[in-house]
């Protein structure tokens, strides 16, 4: 999927809102290029939805629409003065009803970050780490066996 301009993005969010929630989206939606670890966020004070543009570029359309549906769950519940937080039962029920994802998948571009691969001698469990681990100090969390650096 390519990056949409603000008008096209608003139309997409409104179309998803009407299709899955049977209610229009009446506020602002925009890209936030500073988002790193999340696909999007809902700002209750301004009723604005911010979306991570990397998810629009690097993932398929269904994944991006899933992120939009998740943020619309926050939006519509907040508008109706219901529990819109991640822990609220109303939020969890609406996620399930609209088949929205609870979390977004990691970006494909971030998957290459894990440089160090360790393996347990005893059980063979693989550990992938960004930072190096002192193999004399740490052991396998599953069985307590020794771990060794398998590769980079």
From TrEMBL:
Signal peptide: none annotated. Residues 7-150 form the SprT-like domain. It comes from the Bacteria. GO terms for biological process: response to stress. This is SprT family protein.
């Amino acid at each position: 999927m390519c990056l949409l301009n603000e008008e096209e993005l608003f139309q997409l969010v409104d179309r998803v809102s009407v299709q899955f929630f049977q209610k229009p989206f009446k506020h602002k939606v925009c890209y936030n290029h500073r988002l790193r670890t999340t696909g999007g966020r809902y700002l209750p004070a301004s009723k604005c939805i911010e979306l991570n543009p990397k998810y629009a570029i690097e993932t398929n359309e269904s994944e991006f629409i899933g992120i939009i549906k998740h943020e619309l769950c926050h939006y519509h519940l907040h508008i109706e003065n219901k529990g819109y937080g991640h822990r609220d039962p109303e939020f969890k029920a609406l996620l399930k009803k609209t088949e929205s994802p609870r979390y977004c998948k990691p970006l494909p571009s971030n998957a290459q970050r894990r440089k160090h691969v360790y393996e347990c001698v005893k059980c063979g469990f693989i550990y992938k780490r960004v930072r190096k681990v002192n193999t004399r100090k740490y052991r396998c969390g599953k069985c307590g066996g020794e771990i060794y650096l398998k590769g980079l």
